[in-house]
Design a protein that fits this description.
single chain, 494 residues, alpha+beta, Immunoglobulin-like, 4 domains, 9 helices, elongated, disordered N terminus
């Protein structure tokens, strides 16, 4: 006679059908171990090894899925698989493993449960092509003889408003959806609305019409993308990707939405780890953080050191993808004096030596006409070439003093005279030999000629026949005192 744990024997007697509901160990009433008990344990182990099971071969992607409301009027999206990439999209998938010779079909019911145990029914709903309207669950039938593998495509998560939570949970109870038999949910305050799990309940139907149910299989959590408490962390960019190892560098970071009281910045290299310094007020509108880098453990490095920087959420210890940051050796020339000298040498500039009392250049004396030489009255008069000497010799007072020289020096001290001399029209009259190496006589003669042309143009140019008194009167007539007001006659007076 067949063992009660093995079920009915087949006509050939070569195989047995094993059901999950009949796989129970057998023990005697006494504490001893009998041969029948040993046979029962062997059959029970053989039963467990031959029993079909449902395995979740592709977990859902934990981050990046957005829960959408029904009122948004668009598709809730599709839950992607954990191994999904931009070029290769995958979905959560299950597989029937084990013997399936006498297995007719498998019915799989997928629902949403809470993230934390005990896994209670979650008020959010599943929507998709395999989800009956308004049910909030997904039901599929799999024929393992055709395909042991099944992927859940176009399966989305639709969130409900808070005022609809009780109604959604009541709908689950009416559908007898309570995988872990948690009973009625009295309160919903402790339910995390931004995280759910997929729960797979499988029902095996055998060839003789009997059905067996397996224990529920729960997936990894799925977090809402739009919630800052559960969203995926991401560093978008930094304004500086390097800094000195012995000081703190202020850095501006752009990132995805973060909570100012639930975030930290981690610097890491090997066994070394340090945190960036910032306050909650340094987190701007959840998308930017201003922080200071920590000093590196070795502040005497001789070459650049690459470290990683990442964001980490304090509540669930979730971290972002790291970005690189370079610690630079200490700067021996913080004011860049060597670099500036090198730049000057590259473009051909030379630094001027510092001026000291020993090597300071002497101040150039202002130009002065030399005092004229005293010439006797009966000396022969020179020709036209000696007009300068004749002019100086005769511009003397009765006592032989250099009055004319003092007047010319006073004129040279006037800024307006130098402005007149620097005029191009004035300098064009300078002899060509003046640019070379003129002698004193030629300089005096050219200046005297220019003075006669510019200042005394309306008078005779030769002052040799004027004595000192007449020359002074002539100068005073052409240069009235500045205190005298210029009288202007009107048209009526004329």
């Amino acid at each position: 006679m067949a063992h009660p744990l093995q079920g009915d024997a087949s006509p050939s007697g070569s195989s047995h059908r094993v059901r999950g509901s009949s796989c129970l160990p057998v023990s005697t009433s006494s504490g001893g171990v009998s041969s029948q008990n040993r046979v029962g344990d062997t059959d029970a182990l053989e039963c467990l090894l031959q029993k079909p099971k449902l395995v979740l071969v592709e977990e859902p992607k934990e981050r990046g899925m957005r829960f959408r409301y029904e009122c948004e009027g668009r598709s809730a999206g599709s839950i992607l698989g954990a191994s999904s990439t931009e070029t290769n999209k995958t979905q959560p998938a299950i597989e029937i493993q084990g013997p399936i010779d006498q297995l007719k079909r498998v019915t799989v019911t997928v629902s949403l449960v809470t993230k934390d145990p005990p896994h209670r029914p979650h008020p959010h709903c599943l929507v998709g092509k395999d989800c009956p309207n308004g049910s909030g669950i997904c039901i599929v039938t799999v024929n393992p003889h055709n395909n042991r593998h099944h992927s859940f495509a176009n399966l989305g998560i639709q969130c409900v408003r808070r005022k609809e939570l009780d109604m959604s949970l009541q709908r689950r109870r009416s559908q007898n959806i309570d995988p872990f038999q948690t009973g009625d949910t009295k309160g919903i305050e402790d339910i995390d609305m931004n995280a759910v799990r997929l729960c797979f309940q499988s029902e095996f139907e055998w060839d003789d019409g009997q059905k067996d149910c397996l224990s529920p299989v729960v997936s990894h959590p799925i977090y809402d993308k739009k919630a800052t408490t559960t969203s995926q962390l991401k560093i978008c960019c930094l304004n500086h990707y390097s800094g000195p190892c012995n000081s703190k560098t202020e850095i501006f970071m752009l990132c995805d939405k973060v909570q100012k009281d639930d975030i930290e910045i981690i610097f890491r290299r090997g066994s070394w780890k340090a945190s960036g310094e910032f306050a909650q007020t340094d987190v701007h509108r959840q998308i930017a953080i201003v922080f200071k880098t920590p000093t590196y453990r070795d502040q005497s490095i001789a070459e650049e050191v690459e470290v990683s920087v990442s964001l980490r959420r304090l509540s669930d210890q979730m971290e972002s993808e790291p970005v690189g940051f370079t610690y630079l050796p200490p700067n021996p020339d913080p004011y860049a004096v060597k670099r500036k000298r090198k730049m000057k040498s590259d473009i051909g500039f030379r630094e001027k030596p510092c001026a000291t009392a020993e090597n300071a250049p002497a101040a150039e004396p202002s130009f002065r006409f030399p005092p004229p030489q005293t010439v006797p009255p009966d000396a022969p008069q020179p020709g036209a070439s000696g007009s300068a000497e004749r002019c100086y010799s005769e511009l003397q007072d009765s006592n032989g003093g250099p009055d004319a020289t003092a007047i010319l020096n006073q004129l040279l001290d006037m800024p307006s005279l130098w402005d007149m001399i620097s005029d191009p029209s004035f300098t064009s009259a300078v002899p060509s030999g003046f640019e070379q190496e003129p002698d004193v006589a030629s300089v005096i003669g050219s200046v005297d000629m220019n003075l006669n042309n510019q200042v005394f143009g309306s008078y005779p140019q030769d002052f040799s026949h004027y004595n000192d008194l007449q020359f002074n009167m002539l100068v005073n007539e052409n240069h009235p005192p500045p205190s005298e007001a210029v009288q202007v006659k009107t048209e009526e007076e004329l």
